[in-house]
């Protein structure tokens, strides 16, 4: 066998060894995809970090252009608070955004599908959030309707909702915000 031929034979042997492993890894990933499990805390936090990273640069941009009564809107469950992973605890990357907003004259508003404003405000304050307003859903409203109505009312109060941060599609229905930042809900599994 020539040197070139033996090299090809060696490569073929190598491919024979490595290819099944590669296709096995592919098959495992393909099989894992349809399994709808909520990921572990570290994965969720990494996904949240990624979603939230562009918020402060966006707010800086908007503040630089001069916005009337600037505000951010935060969803509560699995956005401001780690409801699924640690009930009542602040979601660190979102809390950082809220604190930055407060320090820069941006109002921090909460819009939630919850129906009790007083208990929501208490939980948020206990978790360390600055709270300028909490708007809750009325009985009989869908989540999307209630949240859109809240943003409309807050806009009516003179706020410019520059950033709307939530983890469900219902957090973004109906307008009344400049830019949405969506955290994961893993196919609707996080409320
Ligand atoms: Mg939520």
UniProtKB/TrEMBL annotation:
Q: Identify the domain of life.
A: Bacteria
Query: Per the record's keyword annotation, is Signal included, yes or no?
Result: yes
Q: Which UniProt keywords apply?
A: Signal
Q: Which Gene3D superfamilies match?
A: HAD superfamily/HAD-like (3.40.50.1000)
The protein depicted here goes by the name Acid phosphatase
Q: Which Pfam families match?
A: Acid_phosphat_B
Position of the signal peptide: 1-32
């Amino acid at each position: 066998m020539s040197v070139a031929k033996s090299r090809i034979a060696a490569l073929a042997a190598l491919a024979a060894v490595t290819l099944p492993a590669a296709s096995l890894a592919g098959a495992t990933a393909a099989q894992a995809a349809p399994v709808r499990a909520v990921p572990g805390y570290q994965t969720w936090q990494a996904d949240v970090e990624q979603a939230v990273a562009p918020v402060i640069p966006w707010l800086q941009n908007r503040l630089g252009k001069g916005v009337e009564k600037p505000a951010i809107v935060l969803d509560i469950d699995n956005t401001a608070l780690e409801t699924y992973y640690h009930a009542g605890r602040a979601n660190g990357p979102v809390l950082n955004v809220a604190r930055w907003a407060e320090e820069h004259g941006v109002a921090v508003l909460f819009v939630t599908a919850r129906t009790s404003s007083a208990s929501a405000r208490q939980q948020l304050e206990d978790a360390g959030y600055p709270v300028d307003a909490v708007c809750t859903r009325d009985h009989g409203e869908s989540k999307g309707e209630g949240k859109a109505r809240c943003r409309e009312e807050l806009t009516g109060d003179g706020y410019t909702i520059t950033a709307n941060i939530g983890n469900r599609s219902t957090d973004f229905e109906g307008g009344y915000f400049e830019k949405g930042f969506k955290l994961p809900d893993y196919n609707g599994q996080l409320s």
